[in-house]
Design a protein that fits this description.
Blueprint (H helix, E strand, L loop, with lengths): L1 E6 L8 H12 L4 E6 L4 H6 L1 H13 L2 E7 L7 H12 L10 E8 L4 H14 L3 E9 L6 H19 L34 E5 L5 H12 L6 E4 L15 H4 L10 H9 L4 E9 L2 E2 L1 H9 L13 E7 L6 H13 L3 E7 L5 H20 L8 H15 L7 H9 L10 H13 L3 H25 L4
Helix pairs in contact: 4-10, 11-13
Bound molecules: flavin mononucleotide.
Length: 461
């Protein structure tokens, strides 16, 4: 069989992900696995019609497609996303229709599920026959049990193609026909006081987005800065080179304006509003490039203590995966999520009201310096980073290691002598049936609230 592997790594052949594909190649010599470097060659693919159509004809004539990609900031690399946009923009969905497909991802398991969900939904939108995903930690190939399962995954994929199995759809098509939003309602202007606010947008071509942004800007007494990402000189997308690991210095430092914009604008304001249009289940690849290039801060939160909100034109409420990505991004950055405003309302007045409440909350929450604690998304995400930076990837991420020490991210309970002694005593005591009965039947609930009760009852806190 002829299988096309669409390689999502910007590193092309020198890719961790491709080692897994090469391992499958080695074990299934009877099948041809043709690797096409998508992310690395995106500029050529976009510029050169012949290059693009030769990929599409490879896809069309294949028996199956493997979307093989590394995780880049919650999902696929911006160039891979651009390729997905091109499939729809150039109306070549027909080449993917009913092709059998699977996903192979490598990462450190930080939000690998959102990447898989995104790609699965794209496969469903393309009417492909989606079989399965296999999401690997980047060094899993060293583990025998995982290698065995990887081969089972590949075998299952090949069998499914041979047997023409019926596949399951996981995502319904998006239904989105928005109203044309024209601001109608005028509210009293909100004083931003000494708060610095910035709105960052990917494009103002979409009238609903432009009008929502205008309305937000008009809600304030002062002029609010609006930055269009299209006007920031960016020489390219993230190369995955990890030069940033040592001291946050990016390969593009001094070569384009992105780092300066991020450091001198985004890091210095109090409130950031991200504005964009949904394109094929994600914000645009322009936005994605922003998120990827923001990785020059590596795994260190870079927008600590800010209020962040999103203005989005598109069916965000039908794409909980995207909402989760944006919420998780905010938590990872150490910012407070104020909310999402979309144009999914039935009337312009509803959007007006939402925007008014949103602008009011942005300023109010910033004024009182409010920050809600992270949920599972932020807490679990940081624990993955903590363990990785402490362990295997401390080199090359030396800057993260220093920052994690300073930010107290290394909160393992290694030195918690008090709880270790308490655990020792309690485990020992619970070996005696009478004491165990007393603890588990009568003392459990009251002892759980004991430390909290002390604070509630303490008049000084
Ligand atoms: C810019 C950048 C962003 C990344 N973002 C994520 C991420 O969000 N989640 C994750 O688990 N790993 C992330 N990684 C780790 C890569 O997914 C992982 O190292 C992958 O195996 C690299 O594969 P490749 O060599 O094929 O590009 C990121 C790496 C880089 C360089």
């Amino acid at each position: 069989m002829k299988i096309i592997v669409l390689n999502g790594s910007p590193k092309g052949d020198i890719s961790v992900t491709m080692q897994y594909i090469k391992y499958i190649q080695k074990k299934f010599k009877q099948h041809e696995l043709k690797i096409i470097n998508i992310s690395q060659r995106i500029n050529q693919i976009e510029r050169d019609k012949t290059a693009f159509h030769s990929i599409i004809s490879d896809v069309k004539s294949s028996d199956g497609i493997i979307w093989a990609f590394p995780l880049y900031v919650f999902t696929v690399h911006s160039n891979y996303q651009r390729f997905i946009e091109l499939i729809f923009e150039k109306n070549v969905e027909y080449a993917f229709k009913e092709k059998y497909t699977s996903i192979l991802a490598t990462s450190i398991h930080f939000f690998d599920h959102t990447a898989v969900n995104y790609m699965n939904s794209i496969c469903d939108d393309l009417n492909m026959n989606y079989i399965d995903y296999f999401s690997l930690h980047m060094y899993d190939l060293e583990k025998e049990d995982i290698r065995k399962n990887l081969l089972k995954f590949a075998q299952n994929f090949f069998n499914a193609i041979e047997n023409k199995v019926i596949t399951l759809k996981n995502y319904s098509p998006i239904k989105y026909s928005p109203i044309r939003y024209i601001p109608e309602f005028t509210h009293d202007k909100i004083d931003v006081s000494n708060k610095k606010v910035i709105i960052v947008a990917d494009s103002l071509e979409n009238i609903n987005l432009k009008n929502m942004i205008d309305k937000l800007r008009n809600s304030f007494s002062q002029t609010i800065e609006l930055v269009n990402l299209e006007n920031i000189n960016m020489k390219g997308s993230c190369l995955g080179c990890l030069k940033c690991g040592y001291n946050y210095e990016c390969i593009y430092t001094g070569k384009d304006d992105f780092i300066n914009f991020y450091n001198s604008k985004l890091k210095t304001v109090d409130i950031i509003v991200f504005a964009g249009t949904i394109k094929y289940r994600h914000l645009s690849s322009t936005w994605k490039r922003f998120f990827d290039r923001g990785f020059f801060n590596t795994h260190t939160p870079s927008l600590l203590g800010k209020q962040i909100g999103f203005i989005i034109s598109g069916a965000l409420n039908q794409i909980p995966n995207l909402k989760q990505i944006l919420e998780s991004y905010t938590q990872w950055q150490g910012s407070n999520l104020v909310g999402f405003i979309t144009d999914e309302c039935d009337t312009s007045i509803e959007i007006d009201k939402q925007l008014h409440a949103f602008s009011y909350n942005l300023i109010k929450l910033s004024t009182v310096n409010y920050s809600k604690p992270a949920t599972f998304l932020g807490v679990a995400g940081m624990k993955i980073f903590r363990d990785e930076i402490w362990g295997k990837i401390r080199f090359p991420f030396i800057a993260d290691h220093k920052a994690y020490k300073a930010l107290n991210v290394y909160d393992f309970p290694q030195k918690n002598y008090k709880s270790r002694i308490m655990n020792f005593i309690l485990i020992l005591m619970s070996k005696f049936p009478l004491i165990r009965k007393e603890i588990y039947s009568n003392k459990m609930k009251s002892s759980m609230i004991e430390p909290l009760k002390k604070i509630v009852e303490d008049k000084t806190v």
